[in-house]
Amino acid sequence: KQFHGYQTGTIRLEPDGWFFTTPFITFADKYYDFKFKPNDVVIVTYPKCGTTWTQEIVWTMVHNPNLNNPKASLPVMIRSPFLELDFLIYSSPIDPTMPGTFLHDTFAQAHPNRNPKDGIFLQLAELTEDPRIIKTHLPFSLLSPSLLETCKVIYVARDPKDVAVSYCHHSRLIKIHGFEGPTSDFVDHFVNDTFWPHLKEGWNRRKHPNIHYCFYEDMKANPKEETLRIHKFLDLNLTESQLNNIVHYTSFQEMSKREQDNLMGSDTRSMWNEEVFNKDGGFFRKGVTGDYKNKLSEEDIQKINEWTKENTRDLDDEFKYKI
Ligand code: A3P
After folding, report:
1. Where is the Sulfotransferase domain positioned along the sequence (predicted)?
2. pLDDT tens across 7-64, in order?
3. Backbone φ, ψ for residue 12 (5° rounding)
4. Residue ID of nearest Cα to ligand 1 atom 14
5. Is 208 a member of any domain?
6. Residue 188's domain spans which residues?
7. 116 C-alpha vs ligand 1 centroid, how far in Å?
8. Smallest CA separation from ligand 1 atom 26, residue
9. Does ligand 1 come within 6 angstroms of the Cβ of 255?
10. Residue at 47 is within a domain
11. Residue 246 included in any domain
12. Collapsing DSSP states into helix, strand and coil, what is residue 265?
């Protein structure tokens, strides 16, 4: 694997052009060599495609089918660890080894014997109770080559125009991302980012028996059906009534209600830009398909469509976003 400086604080991985902040170098091999277990479920997504929703569906099916597990009140990132969160945290001003920080304290509460120096979230992923439901935004090519031979993977894709809107909001909301420019600047960044290689790496593996490839739009249109497909893929044995309850419990409305409690972490609000929160909402912004029509200019829509056309030429017609 080869790294070279792209701009200050950022690296670009050749030959595919994945972008990362420099602390990724410290962790890249650890992620690549991460030991997955046969009963892990790994949720692989490009950011803002419905990761948290899928984590909550899977974690609840596996660990809380009767909706009475007290651990359900822990933040989702503690129950279902974010594999590479350390490198993002270490590229921010937050020092997660400092007692008193939200990340440190939440982690200490979950795993008191940790050694923060080796990466808090990496260890959380290692120590999490089986079966582990692990989240990652890393593309397949930066994860263990034996991932699909070892455990089950759920890949979630979403319309790039809605992803652009959601990601722009996220980048404004979270202080450490601190994006302050206009939406059109964000779109310019987005069409240079690695959305397509990420989705294609997933799509090209979709026929592997250990991958379940799903679309946010289908989950939104038919939540029950899509939940049943995940249930079948995971070989679980829940009752109709348990599944109905889980569909309700993981709806946007119910999850956004839990955002007020602890779903995203007790102190998340301190990491958010209040102005953005008051204007456009929190992590659970809107949870719909097609909001780009209200948020993107004609020019930006056109830009994303052309970029999509170019990048989906080689994909078959089954691919939802092919133009
Ligand atoms: P919006 O910003 O469009 O509302 P991720 O978890 O990958 O970061 O994705 C976040 C997006 O998924 C946000 O999209 C969020 O609102 C949406 N989302 C989260 N939970 C959801 C749910 N239960 N149903 C529908 N959308 C959900």
Report:
1. 38-315
2. 334 555 555 556 666 677 778 888 999 999 999 999 999 999 999 999 999 999 999 9
3. -125, 130
4. 287
5. yes
6. 34-80+128-312
7. 30
8. 287
9. yes
10. yes
11. yes
12. coil
